[in-house]
Design goal:
With 133 residues, the chain is α+β, with helices and mostly antiparallel strands. It folds into 2 domains: 4-42, no CATH class; 46-132. Helices cover 51% and strands 16% of the residues. The chain is built from 5 helices and 5 strands; from the N terminus they run βββββααααα. The chain has helices at residues 54-67, 72-89, 93-108, 111-119, 122-132; strands spanning 4-8, 13-16, 19-22, 28-32, 39-41. The strands form 2 sheets. The protein has a 3-stranded antiparallel sheet with strand order 3-2-5, with helices on one face. A two-stranded antiparallel sheet has the order 1-4. It is globular, with a radius of gyration of 15 Å.
Length: 133
């Protein structure tokens, strides 16, 4: 089993199964071997008031699952609907690929990887929102 590898900067914080862990003074690398561990880089965390667009709301929902603040079973169905809605708007090949990855990850309970896939869409969404204004 390969697990998830986290590369941490000095003093970077990460949430692992509800516990905040802070890296020391040097860069480091952690291998998370437990497949169902909930991991969230705090530098990537979206604050509630920042969850103001469709992709950000989907990311925030996954973030709440990873932090243990929401039940995965309750969030997954709603999240799959959000991803389906996003696929109606984000129709380019790359976005569709990321949405497919996110869907697969949510279905399989790989929430961290799902969040990673959705985060790729944030700059695209931002560009679309800027054009629409």
């Amino acid at each position: 089993m390969s697990g998830l590898v986290l590369k941490l900067s000095p003093k970077e914080r990460v949430l692992v199964n509800g516990a905040v862990i802070e890296n020391g003074d040097r860069r480091s690398r952690l291998s998370i071997m437990t497949p169902d561990a909930n991991i969230l880089r705090l530098r990537d965390a979206i604050h509630p008031e920042e969850a103001n667009t469709p992709v950000r709301r989907a990311c925030y929902s996954l973030q709440l699952v990873l932090s243990g603040d929401s039940d995965a079973g309750e969030v997954e169905r709603m999240l799959l609907r959000h991803i389906e809605d996003l696929s109606q708007v984000l129709t380019d090949v790359d976005s569709r690929k990321q949405l497919a990855i996110a869907t697969e990850c949510v279905i399989e309970g790989r929430h961290y990887q799902g969040l990673k896939a959705l985060r790729v869409l944030l700059p695209r969404e931002e560009r679309l929102m800027a054009v629409a204004r």
